[in-house]
Design a protein that fits this description.
By secondary structure, the chain is an alpha/beta fold. It has 14 helices and 14 strands. It has helices at 32-43, 94-106, 116-128, 141-156, 198-201, 212-221, 247-257, 278-282, 308-311, 332-347, 350-372, 397-400, 405-417, 438-457, and strands at 61-65, 68-71, 76-79, 134-138, 160-164, 204-207, 226-231, 261-266, 288-291, 302-306, 377-381, 384-388, 420-421, 430-431. A seven-stranded mixed sheet has the order 4-10-9-8-7-5-6, sandwiched between helices. 50% of the residues are buried. Bound molecules: pyridoxal-5'-phosphate (PLP). Pyridoxal-5'-phosphate (PLP) binds next to α4.
């Protein structure tokens, strides 16, 4: 990876543009990034099309190729963001793209009946994901979790669901609460958006990840009311909180005992950690699974799969009562991308590669922190890593309240200056891909050490150290 012109960033972000850029200067001295972002802000609220893409520095990207992102000024970054996780093979994979073009040339969007691509892909998912007897395709992870909750309610005739503080399951109303809650909002009614009916949010109970007793208490307090427990089997939306031994198995047993369904949201873990998702690793079988992101290496495909007797409640069957529809569901380009991705995952040592690099990265980072005496926890699983600035352990969302959020974000902003793109938002995780190399890891460790040395030397304000 090369860094043509490393960004010059100070931590003074007054004005909301790229960090350190004084927006009072004349337009002619603005970089292409700044000018393009100003244009974006005139026509797009906030300039970005997803809340979690709103970052400082505000970057406008021109291309993503392998492990490298390039912005409109020509700056290159070694990418650890991976588009929030889809790019397991690396961005813009030529074999995936070729299959997409073939699908466009040969198929288009019939929009009636089904296609050979959809059938072939459904068979692949039922072959690989241990709990998948039947599968339906949609276009986003949010739709997959939305449909999982809807069908769970249809199947059980119950209203309530249990989710975990810190888990994110997309934009659906009944799931959008208690995600990255501030300390005073943890376990209270922390709505993720204005406009959600309070009576909808009230049907969602919030428990602590890794606390089986809390889940049992919630179920016992609402006997016969809970339709489903939904969980990210690894809580990656808060970085990486691993399930304690027995936690997921315990959820399985509690769900069965209280007549609720167990939903694994494997939108991040599916295809990223294993072709069969995390369930293939931990051996716990959910009733329903939501899949997305890495399934199609960046193309918009998601899926809900699970037990046939539950999936048969969807209205795609004549007798089904849980409505399921979408103009672009199972779109040929997305199915072709997923088939190409899965075939590469089947054929090439992708997991071996990203797990090995992940281990190297985490070991290297931990050694740097030890040398420098920084208060940090380096953790992760396989291709996903995160460094929290706190003392361990990290087993619950409550633990994460000790993380130094300002330092977490500052560290990542500084890495961007060094040509390493790690999402500069609190608790976000880093993703390795098949396109990353040992040399990339070496380069990253060097950059991390340089940044950390500055942070350690000048803890109050990194900006003044440079
Ligand atoms: C675990 C999990 N579930 C669901 C979603 C929603 O997926 P999408 O953004 O494709 O709607 C996300 C998105 O980040 C996610 O991380």
């Amino acid at each position: 990876m090369t860094s043509n012109t490393p960004l010059e960033i100070s931590t003074d972000n007054a004005g909301g543009g790229r960090s350190g850029v004084d927006l009072r200067v004349s337009t002619s001295s603005l970089s292409l990034n700044e000018r393009a972002f100003e244009e974006a802000c005139r026509v797009v609220p906030g300039g970005v099309n997803s809340t979690s893409r709103r970052i400082s520095p505000s970057l406008v990207f021109r291309s993503a190729e392998g492990a490298i992102l390039t912005d409109v000024d020509g700056n290159q970054y070694l990418d650890y963001h991976g588009g929030f996780g889809p790019a397991i093979l690396g961005h813009n994979h030529p074999d995936v793209n070729r299959r997409v073009v073939d699908a466009l040339d040969s198929c288009g969007l019939p929009g009636a009946g089904t296609t050979e691509l959809e059938i072939e892909l459904a068979k692949k998912i039922c072959q690989h994901v241990p709990s998948a007897e039947k599968v339906l395709f949609c276009t986003s992870g949010s739709q997959a979790t939305f449909h999982a909750v809807r069908v769970a309610r249809a199947f059980t005739g119950r209203k309530k669901i249990i989710k975990f503080q810190g888990c994110y399951h997309g934009i659906e109303d009944s799931l959008l609460r208690n995600v990255a809650s501030q300390p005073d909002q943890v376990f209270r009614l922390d709505a993720g958006s204005a406009g959600i009916l309070p009576e909808v949010l009230a049907q969602t109970l919030v428990c602590e990840f890794n606390d089986l007793d809390g889940v049992e208490q919630a179920l016992a307090a609402h006997v016969g009311d809970v339709a489903a427990i939904i969980v990210e089997p690894i809580m990656h939306n808060a970085g990486c909180i691993l399930p304690r031994a027995g936690f997921l198995q315990g959820l399985r047993e509690l769900a069965t005992r209280y007549g609720a369904l167990l939903i694994f949201d494997e939108v991040i873990t599916g295809f990223r950690h294993h072709l069969g998702g995390y369930q293939a690793i931990c051996g716990v079988m959910p009733d329903l699974t939501a899949l997305g992101k890495a399934i199609a290496n960046g193309f918009p495909l998601a899926a809900i799969c699970g037990k046939a007797e539950i999936m048969d409640h969807f209205s795609t069957r004549a007798a089904g009562d849980a409505y399921f529809a979408g103009t672009y569901n199972g779109h040929p380009i997305a199915c072709a991308a997923a088939l190409a991705t899965i075939e590469i995952l089947e054929r090439e040592p992708v997991y071996e590669h990203v797990f090995r690099l992940g281990e190297r990265l985490r070991r290297g980072l931990a050694a740097i922190h030890q040398r420098l005496g920084t208060q940090a926890v380096v953790t992760g699983f396989g291709s996903i890593s995160v460094t929290y600035f706190m003392d361990g352990p990290v087993e619950t969302y409550a633990d994460l309240l000790r993380n130094d959020a300002a330092r977490f974000v500052e560290y990542r902003r500084r890495l961007i200056e060094h040509g390493i793109f790690s999402m500069p938002l609190n608790l976000k995780r880093d993703h390795l891909s098949y396109a990353h190399t040992d040399a990339h890891v070496d380069q990253t460790l060097e950059a991390c050490e340089n940044v950390l040395v500055k942070i350690v030397r000048c803890p109050s304000s990194v900006a003044h150290c440079s």
